[in-house]
Amino acid sequence: MPAFHKFFLTKQLADTFRKNVSGSKDGLPDWAKDIALGDDAGLFDPDGSVWKVHGSLATLVGGVRALLLQAAHPAPLAGVAQHSRYESDPMGRLAGTTRWLTITTFGSTQTIELEAKRVNAMHSKVSGEYTDMGGTRSSYRAQDARFLLWVHCAFTDSFIKSHLALGYPLPDGADEYVRDWVKSAIPLGLNTAPKSMAELEVTLEDFRMNDLGRTEKTLEVVQFILKPPFSSLGLLFYKIIANAAIATLDENELAILGLKARSKIWLKIARAVLNVFSVILGPESPSQNLARKRIARIS
Fold it and tell me: How would residue 8 be classed by pLDDT, with cut points 50, 70 and 90?
């Protein structure tokens, strides 16, 4: 195949996947334009770990890992199954999560506050009951402190571990990322998030021992996460990303999710593919560029 055709197919795939993740193939949906608004730098240092982690393409692996990891907890899983559009509009749910993550990372404090209000309004409507594999019925609310803590830890753990496992640099270390990303949880009502990798691991182990488990919906949701309605070419790329994500999961989590361990070679394959995407898409996302322009304007 001529080099031009290879490039075209790769660019087309990159654009398609970016549209699936953010809602726009140029990576700049309407909501992202709000990142240009405001008169401060936001919650995070543009040269800090949060920008480095969330600005890298490792977030594609981290995002899939976070969806899988959340499915290991019966309460968030029930919330997804009962209240989200994951079956009728799975990409809409993914784009919504991308919106919150992107605005919170790169937006001004004013824009972040508005986004948190949007998310909190959605969470206020998410409640219900679920039945575990032992037949015990329990209730859940998305705004419960334990629920919020798990979702925050699943996100934090997934993005930092994917970033490091793929070999992306993080000069200031994982502890700085975990400590800084705590700021993202406060507008959502969580004030007890772990502030170091050691604290994060302790909290995750507590969840593994006391909260995680399989329900009748677990395997169904996991299979949907692993095979979304993409084109054949899109699914080929997604399989690489998903296998890389699975390669970083804990044995206990794999057992709950009904997954077999994946070879670490998938991390190398994923990194190679993401390197190609990085050349095509550029070193920074359109959202980062908007944030830098906003910060330069107020400096």
Answer: very low
